[in-house]
Records
---
Amino acid sequence: MSPRRRSELYRVVVGLAALALFAANVKGLSAGHPDGWLVGVLALAGILALEFPLHASINEKLSVASAVFFAAVLLLPMWQAAALVGGLQAADLCIAALRRTLATRETPPLRAVGINVAFNGGQAYLSALGAGWLLAGGGVSARNGLAGPQDAAVVAAAAVLMYCLNLVMVAIAKALMTSRHPLHLFFDTQRIAYVQFASLYVLGAVTAFATVRVIWIPVLAVVPAFLVYHSLRQRVEMRRDAMRAMERMADEVDRRDPYTYNHSQRVAIYTHAIARKLGLGPADVELLELAAKVHDIGKIRIPDSILLKPARLTDAERRVMETHPRLGFDILKPFSEYAKVLDLVLSHHERYDGKGYPNGVVGRRLMLIAQVIPVADSLDAMTSARAYRAARSWDAAKEELRRGAGTQWNPHVVAAAIAVLAPTEREEPVRVAATAASA
């Protein structure tokens, strides 16, 4: 089973487990005579919070909805709170899919949308249910107030449990998709904003206890929530600035050699087109583009005498040049923003038959996503001039790709590259990438 299928199966199981629990305990929704006004106010506050997320990346959003969700867990019986939180999370994804459909006039991939709705709604439901169960076991709720330090400890433990359950389930889904260790993803996920998220749970607790006296507090809490939102925004902008700086550094590597000027940008464009032809999801396409933009950044540590040599390299010089994927890996490793693309950068010169570098990994054992950049990189190298040779024609480059399919490159990736990057369509990837960037 492919990593994508494993991840999809896991997400469906999470969604079905949540739905089964909901169905088995539907009677719990009427427990304690639900306060319609309170549920309505919490729902309004939750929708407002979810409608203004910060997009850290195409598959990672940050919002202040956690404060509203935790307030709901403290104010409502656990079955009601879990249903409200899960329902709001699922509704937000449905609204986002509808908005995208209206904006693009394209039919969304209903299967992918359905899986995402099931998983995100399910993991939110289960996280809220776990926190509610802990609060119910400790006999703590906002309506009863805090009897002492022990009750405060239970509230803190419920917040930690809710946050960790959410992160663990998301990390497992990503780990199954990317073949990475879930613990690494757990610590990487939302690492840029852990202080802000802790403050959101504090804000949610304060809001819940205040709401017992003034029911409109969840809506009025928008002011302190905005301050946390602003702090989150600054962290996200700092992250984006760091990524832009790294990409500019990679561009400077290309500028060192007039023959490779804009090489990384072209490889990113080709990679985008090939990935879409292969049917990879939007998140994978973004990861590939990001990796392509910085795939040669390790060359910044290669001496000019080798990098700019106007002739073929000697064996010793080539061994030095072949260290650049590892050097790039080392340069990017300290930056959590690039954690997901490290393996793509490291493996962009590995071959399908295992005769590549730096590790001689058999390419066919790599995930498909890791076999795209090698084709795009080679394609641009062949069709660009070098000091010691002229650029090959597009037809010649295609023939070389065909000859190397099954030995140097993945045959499926080669077929996709030839199909989408035909001579008469060579400008199409540029148009597609520009359209995607402006969307």
Note: Residues 257-438 form a domain with the Hypothetical protein af1432 fold (CATH 1.10.3210.10).
---
Amino acid sequence: MEKLFLDELREIYGAERHQIPVLHLLKKAASSLRMQSMLANHLDTTHDHIGRLEEIFKMLGRDPEGHQSEAVLEIVRAAETVIESTEKGSVDRDAGLVVVAQKLERYEVSSYASLARWCRTLEYDDILDILEMTLHEEKEAADLLTVLAENYIRPVL
């Protein structure tokens, strides 16, 4: 279980670090000011999450190292496809970018939830507190994206 925990920790660390340029890309491509603001806030929290993960590695006596996340690479490809296939400043582009951002959030929520479960099993109580804080923030970000999609990004009929 400890090996699984460390592997997943390395993967989410790599994913968090890799998503910094992805979030910049999404923010630059978005036309909705609400979405740009939400992505800017998520960039800030992503830096916090990276710091927390580095703290966890330190608590475990390990050097922080990240694995390349194939899931995040696929999400990057999806973002590029949305940007290439939609008109700049269009509702279609923003709607597609919201879907991409939601995929990223769901991936993170799933990863942090798994890590938290394994922390309970491994009795890493101090680490569990840190992961649950991050999990809560990721769930909030996912909920905000849903609100954004439902209330602010609507196709013009």
Note: The mean pLDDT is 90.
---
Amino acid sequence: MARHIFRDAIVLNPDGARPSGTVVVEGRHITSVQFNSVIDVGPDDRVTDLGGRTLMPGMVSSHFHSTYHELGSRSTPFGLEEPPALQAVRAAGNLERLLRSGFTGAVSAGAPFAIDASMKLAISEGLFPGPRLMAGSRDVSTTGHAGDKSFPWYWDVQAQGAINRSDGPDDFRRAVRDEIKQGAEIIKMFVTGGHGTVAPSERIEMTSEELSAGIDAAHQRGVLVRGHIANRQAIHMALEAGIDVIDHGDGLDEAAIEKMVEQGTFLVPSQLFPKRFAEMMNGSGLGFGATMAGDIDKALEILPVANAAGVKLLCGDDYGAISLPHGCYADELEFYVKEAGIPPLDVIRWATQHGAELMGRAHELGSIKDGFLADLLVVDGNPLEDIRILQNASSILAIMKGGTLVKDELLALPTTEQGRRP
């Protein structure tokens, strides 16, 4: 079998970078990672001399809304109650855009009409190029919760696409099982308001009994649960119930950090969206942008503490929402480096190894190791020296998913006489 051999690479892994690396890809897998070594080259092998450029694992967006659309009508925020076929087309476009931005994996943070499950099947059938996708559910929460405001009560209708409205522990069990039946691999629950919703952050949208029942039902069937959570009390309630992923985590404290490390709970801060939204509100003259900015500052202050303690932090945000369009997925890496003081290598770890762990695939994704799947990026530069380089599409010379080049601008780079260009 012909191989792809990358030579003279800075091999950037979640634990650090090493120069003068040679990485061999055969079929779907990495078969060799060596340093300062000579590899025998066969007549059919393709050899690319990277000349000190960076080879790194593909990234994972661990909070991704494939259907979010900032131009949705006022009665259908983010387009979530628009026609399913329209939303599916949008989802396909957004997932392909994510892959072509260097994110070879995605974990859904919620989607209507079981669209994510269908997108996963379509990608696996080769109908369009997309990332490895962990399909999400509709938003599971109670009557009148923050997401249950997309229609007036007097219309006497339900938001069937985006919401699985539930009340009481038994109803939460039913809702979770219903979402799993429709293909969800991770359940989204709206535990509180806040963080860009119409309800205040201090409002808890469900009882501890409802939350625990839903989590138990999901875990019984091998499915994870993530929660939109934006206050301290709800964070502790969710940790007590055994939640897997805390989205946003406004109000995080050191006691919660200790518990998250103990339980292996993931945290997706997703603070870039509220930051940009607050900036937009400050310029609008509406007056509440400053309050939002203060909340964001508090959330960012605790992140270095959580990171140093060993919390499994993740990348991902509400792309497609107002002020955060799809396509700028790598912006948040710079944001956490610049605004929260997180070292670039740590943020890259969030986007690679930790994302792979969330997907349950850290044994084969998220690092450049022998036997791992060849989900790789070739970057013209070093992200550890300038994290912003990952925002520039022209700087990502190649994107490989499972040994297949999705993007290939390597032909302009040197090759050897023994190597062959296709």
Note: Residues 416-422 have pLDDT under 50 and may be disordered.
